[in-house]
Amino acid sequence: MSNNDDQIQREIEIIDSVANKGSLQKAKAYSKLSGPGWLQSAITLGGGSLGSAMFLAVMGGFAILWVQPFAMLMGVILLAAISYVTLSIKRTPFQALRQDINPVLAWGWLAASQLANMIWVLPQYSLSYGAITDNLFPGLFESSKDSNVTKYIVSFVILGLMLFVNFLGSRKGRGYRIYENILKVLVGIVVLCFMGVVVRLAGTLDWGAIFCGFIPNPSMIWNPADAYNDILKTLPSAEAREYWTAVVLKAQRDPMVAATAAADGINMTFLMPWALRARKWGRKHRGLSRFDLATGMMIPFVIATACVVIAAGSQFHGKPFEGLITEENGAVVVHEESGKFKDYSKAIATRNGKVKDVPVADGEKTLAAMLIKRDTKQLAGALESLFGNSMVAQKVFGIGVLAMGLSTISILMLISGFVACEVAGKPRDSMAFKVGTLLASTGVLWPLLWGGQSKAYLAVTTSTFGYVLFPIAFLAFVIMINSKKVLGDQVPTGRAKLAWNIPLISALVITGLAAGWTGWNKKLIIKNEAGEITTDLAMGKWFIIIFAILVVIGFFLPKKETQSATDP
Predict the structure, then answer these.
(1) Where in the chain is the domain with CATH 1.10.4160.10?
(2) Closest C-alpha to 264, from 472, 553, 56, 517
(3) 330: alpha, beta or left, given left = phi > 0 and alpha = psi -120 to 50?
(4) Residues 458-496: tens digit of each pLDDT
(5) CB–CB of 275/38 below 8 Å?
(6) Confidence band, pLDDT 50/70/90 cuts, at residue 151
(7) Is the pLDDT at 367 greater than 80, yes or no?
(8) Rounded distance, CA 347 to CA 342, Å?
(9) Alpha helix segments (H runs only) across 170-298
(10) Per-residue confidence (pLDDT) for residue 26, from 0 to 100
(11) Which of 180, 347, 482, 506 is the most buried (most CB within 10 A)?
(12) Neighbouring C-beta atoms of residue 275, cutoff 10 Å
């Protein structure tokens, strides 16, 4: 018997020993065996979560605290179903879906997961670079941080480090456990850093508003937050009021969608089966897998993202960008020397293109200044006076942000390797895995693919796109958990069937409608040098229609039996 088999046997003995014990004793035993849930936590606590939390806070303040925990709850429901399916069959879920259910859905799930890996890794490098140059070592990069050469050098150093770390993830047994423990440490650093920020802020916060913010309030999808609505009501022009209401609502909705996407990425659903198989968990580990998701994924995510929302909301919500405008003699004065004057001017120019022959009111100037995107540098800077030491504020925040970025880069490369193994039918310690990890090294190209001033906002842009793909996985596992052909005698029946299907189908409907609405309204817009629109293609609408047709066809295609992949 191998060392790995001995480890599995010891785990089963521990699980059996607490099978009839109380919740506290089970929790104590299970906490020693956890692992896959922490991998999920490492990917969710990345640039998408940080960027989304910051911009959620800017737009909604404490009232929007409920969005990320609610999204994570839906993700946990799906991942619990994925765990049940994975631990009940000998094949991978991809193989079962392709062979027994719908090959189009299977390949769509795999392709969407890999596409998400290659896209979402971009903001992780961008965010990590921002943490290194803005927060941790600003003096070292003071004259060169805007240079593409510097960006590429730092990014390739990060890539080299991540390739080394992921080499451990490709090894069976102890190497993979070391890899898991490295990620646990990174997740712990993230949580502790952001908790420290909120503890320092504690005496200045409205805790009543914070607790109320965890109560779901979907009205913010259709109504501007009070801080913006109060200004909108004062605008003298109905045309300007209508324009700025639309701008504010879009600025609120995009981070809400991005936050949901960052909590529930489709590539996370591809990671879960392979993480469980890498541990060689089986049916005896079902209860442990649910505990692992709750403690290793849900709790760290909710704590860390809530702390970011609280910190950013307390500093930025309802406030113009610092130093951009002031009120003098009852009128709003815009300061051209401000570092964000260019962004402000662009916002006003766009407004003037839509609202013609109407002078810009002071309220509009204030709104434009309030809506300018903040980055991690601004949040850390806003906390300096509270810490009493600018170095502490910048370093604590920078370490947390860097840990977020690095852990997510590593996990995205890991998932990409798993995708390659699935396609090639090879085990985790094969060359296919190593080659696959390189497919997620696209992140080093972020200087070429992203030119925005706010590095954190790249996470919002990519997460919004990725969320459109998420219902693919939801639909796949709703079908599989009810398929006797896939699960055999392990298919849930009676109350267990209801216990699985009610939350799964409810979550599918919620995410499907949200993702469908987001995708349906996505357009490819190309402008010429004069700013005139030359292409206005409803690409999101056509993608949804074409993919839906292909999925329906897939249910009628003959199912080809193929050889299962080697044990991971």
Answers:
(1) 34-319+374-461
(2) 472
(3) left
(4) 555 555 555 666 788 888 889 999 999 899 899 999 999
(5) no
(6) very high
(7) yes
(8) 9
(9) 174-201, 207-212, 226-232, 238-263, 266-278, 286-293
(10) 85
(11) 180
(12) 29
Tokens of 316: 């930025």
| Phi, psi angle pair for 355, to nearest 5° | -110, 95
Rounded CA-CA distance 250/224 in Å is: 10
Q: Which two tokens stand for residue 141?
A: 């990069």
Q: Is 179 helix (H, G, I), strand (E, B) or coil?
A: helix
Percent of the chain topping pLDDT 90: 17
State the Rg of the chain over Cα. Answer: 24
How far is residue 362 CA from its own chain's centroid? Answer: 36
Residue 464, token pair as written in the block: 């919004």
Q: How far is CA 113 from CA 121, 417, 471, 505, 521, in A?
A: 12, 11, 12, 21, 22
Q: Which amino acid is at 141?
A: F
Query: What's the distance, CA 313 to chain centroid?
Result: 19
- Confidence band for 562, pLDDT divided at 50, 70 and 90: very low
User: For residue 493, what are its two tokens?
Assistant: 């029946």
Q: Tell me the average pLDDT across 153-164.
A: 91
Tell me: the pLDDT tens digits for 232-252? 999 988 999 999 999 999 888
Q: Which of 330, 444, 315 is nearest to 374 (CA)?
A: 315
What residues have CB less than 8 Å from 354, skipping those under 6 apart?
A: 243
Instruction: State the Cα–Cα distance between residues 320 and 370, nearest whole angstrom.
Output: 4
For 471, 516, 543, the CA distances from 513, given in Å and listed in that order, are 9, 5, 15
| CA 489 to chain CA mean position, Å | 35
* Number of other CB atoms surrounding residue 217 within 10 Å: 16
Alpha-carbon distance 66 to 550, whole Å?
Answer: 36
Neighbour tally for 270: CB within 10 Å: 27
Q: How far is CA 14 from the centre of its chain?
A: 34
> Residue 403 in contact with residue 41, Cβ under 8 Å?
no
pLDDT of residue 376: 66
Q: What is the DSSP string of 386-439?
A: HHT-HHHHHHHHHHHHHHHHHHHHHHHHHHHHHHHHHHHT--TTSHHHHHHHHT
Architecture of domain 34-319+374-461: Orthogonal Bundle (1.10)
What's the CA gap between 550 and 559, in Å, rounded?
A: 15
CB 45 within 8 A of CB 300: yes
- CB within 8 Å of 411: residues ≥ 6 apart: 39, 42, 43, 46, 183, 271
Give CA–CA dist 493/515, Å, rounded. 30
Measured CA to CA, the distance from residue 176 to residue 168 in angstroms comes to 6
* Residue matched to tokens 């504020």: 393
Residues with Cβ within 8 Å of residue 204, at least 6 apart in sequence: 314, 386
Which residue, 488, 389, 520, 296, is CA-closest to 480? 488
Tell me if 541 sits within 8 A of 71, measured CB to CB: no
| Residue 463 near residue 120 (C-beta atoms within 8 A) | yes
